[in-house]
Amino acid sequence: MASLKDLKNRIESVKSTQKITKAMQMVAAAKLRRAQEAAEAARPYAQRMAAVMANLSTAMAGTPGASPLLVGTGKSDTYLLVVMTADRGLCGGFNTNIVKKARERITTLQAAGKDVKLICVGKKGGEQLKRQFAKLIVERMDLSGEKTISGATSGKIGDKIRFMFENGEFDVCEIVSAEFESVISQKPRAKVLIPAIDAIDEGVERPDLAGAVYEAEPDEEVILNTLLPRYADTVILSALLENVAGEMGAKMAAMDNATRNAGELIDKLNLVYNRTRQAQITTELTEIISGAEAL
Amino acid sequence: MADKLHFDLVSPERRLFAGDVDQVVVPGEEGDFGVLPNHAPFMSVIRPGAIAVLNDGSTERTFIHGGFAEVTPAGLTILAEEAIPMSEIDADALAENLSNAREDVAAAKDEEEREHAEGLVAKYEAMQAALAN
Fold it and tell me: Mutating which of A47, A148, A157, A217 best tests the B interface, going by the most B Cβ atoms within 10 A?
């Protein structure tokens, strides 16, 4: 049986672990609030952008000059998956779930005879996918350098994707990231980014023009061509923001669990400690009494 | 009071304005245009400059750098890349930024750096022009 000193040490060590997990939980909670605010603040822009896109794209999709960013290359041979994960672990199954989703998607696409390329945003996803799909990864980006996710971050990713698209390196681009449903639930999902026409939800409300026709200045094509890259950036930005919020939510839940487990463990160890202490006292007493009796 | 125009000003980071106003003057790519209530559906690229929001006799100006204006029967929406209220722009700081940016253009080592600096110069110049009005 462990000695009293050993038990005491263990209790102390579990207690300090509990302090750390509790602190991490609180930090995650604070960060979660900020991340949620950022995600919410970005939403009106994204919604408006989607509405404008929906409007323009229906008008433009049929015309021969439509940008390939909108209508695609006409093929779907090569897929580019942008897998967004967190940079850090200790957030429960958050990263694993996203990677699992990505893996599923890759396997389905490969089974269908498509080529797959990967961009991993966030350290953890890259590390996990490297084991199985090292050859498919064309780029790994981590976000540890960025203090806050801003337009600059998503712009960098967007530029890279567009650069590859212009060089004909892929036909379809999808984002795999976590959708922030609530603090306790983040659902990984794959979302089409290019061709944009497939990405526009049917659900987006289109303004009722009451039969009027849009007038555009300079003209629709120019507008659409400047709008499309920006639209992609917006989608990437909101995915990133949601991912951060999801990461913090998952981390908070995971750390809350850890804190509770540590509490339970401390209770159990305390019980054992007290029992051992009592047993020791009893033994000592018995020894003294029987010694006294023997005299 | 006659009809009001519903006006939304949003940037990627946040919603800057939402409400009913009398008129908005927007610097369009091909010239300034004013939007009054019941304007016909219209869409335009915005050139860097200040938009003026007219409401109840007062005018509020906001500097917009890059973006779109969309007019629908529901109102006017401006999707701004970057938006700064004119009252927050400091002329002295701006002049300094501008001369710094010009120096950067001269000192740029490669094409990318120069393009970035030139973009900044153009932006600050547009800000100065907007401030002068």
Answer: A217
